[in-house]
UniProtKB/TrEMBL annotation:
Organism expressing this protein natively: Nonomuraea aridisoli
The protein, known as: Histidine kinase/HSP90-like ATPase domain-containing protein
Keyword annotations of the record: Kinase, Serine/threonine-protein kinase, Transferase
Compositional bias per record (Basic and acidic residues), positions renumbered to this chain: 139-149
Residue ranges of the region described as Disordered: 126-149
Gene Ontology MF, one: protein serine/threonine kinase activity
Pfam families: HATPase_c_2
UniProt xrefs under PANTHER family: ANTI-SIGMA-F FACTOR RSBW, ANTI-SIGMA-F FACTOR RSBW-RELATED
Signal sequence interval, chain numbering: none
Length: 149
C-alpha cells in the first residue's frame, strides 16, 4: 500500500525552514539532484515575493503528481497576475526583481490564478532531466561551457 501525503505550511520569513520542508517532500516524491534543487529555489523565490511584494501571508502546498511535484504558493494580497509572469525579464542593470523569471526557468510549468482567497502561483517540476536549455551550465559558468565540461 502506497501512502501519499501533502505538505501544507504557512508562508513565513523562516525561508530555511520552508526550503527544508519542500526539499523533504520533493525528495520523498522522487525528485533528485538538480531537479530537486530547482524546485527548492523556485519555491524560495515565490515565498520571497509574497513577503516582499504581496500580503506577507499565505500558504505553501506541495503534492506529488504522476510526473513530479506541484507546489502552490497562495498570497492573500492577490496582487500577482498572469501579466506579471508574461512580462518577467532580467534587467542587466538591476539588483533585484528576478524572481518570476528565475521561477519560469527552473520549473516545467508555471501558472497564476486569481481566486477569492488571493493569487495562487502554481509551479510543477517533473522527475527526470530538465527540458529547459541552460546555455552556460547550471550557474551561468561560461568557463565550464567553453572547456566542454
Amino acid at each position: 500500500m502506497s501512502m501519499e501525503f501533502e505538505l501544507r505550511c504557512p508562508v513565513s520569513a523562516d525561508l530555511g525552514f520552508i526550503r527544508d520542508l519542500v526539499r523533504l517532500h520533493a525528495r520523498h516524491s522522487g525528485l533528485r539532484g538538480e531537479r530537486l534543487d530547482d524546485l527548492v529555489l523556485a519555491v524560495n523565490e515565490a515565498v520571497t515575493n509574497v513577503l516582499d511584494h504581496g500580503g506577507k501571508a499565505g500558504t505553501v502546498t506541495a503534492v506529488r503528481t504522476g510526473q513530479g511535484v506541484r507546489v502552490e504558493v497562495m498570497d492573500v494580497a492577490g496582487r500577482l497576475t498572469g501579466d506579471h509572469l508574461g512580462s518577467a525579464a532580467i534587467d542587466p542593470a538591476g539588483s533585484h526583481g528576478f524572481g518570476l523569471w528565475v521561477i519560469q526557468h527552473l520549473c516545467d510549468e508555471v501558472a497564476v490564478e486569481q481566486t477569492a482567497a488571493g493569487s495562487r502561483l502554481t509551479m510543477h517540476v517533473h522527475r527526470g532531466p530538465s527540458p529547459r536549455y541552460r546555455p552556460f551550465g547550471r550557474y551561468g559558468d561560461h568557463e565550464t561551457q567553453r572547456a566542454g565540461n
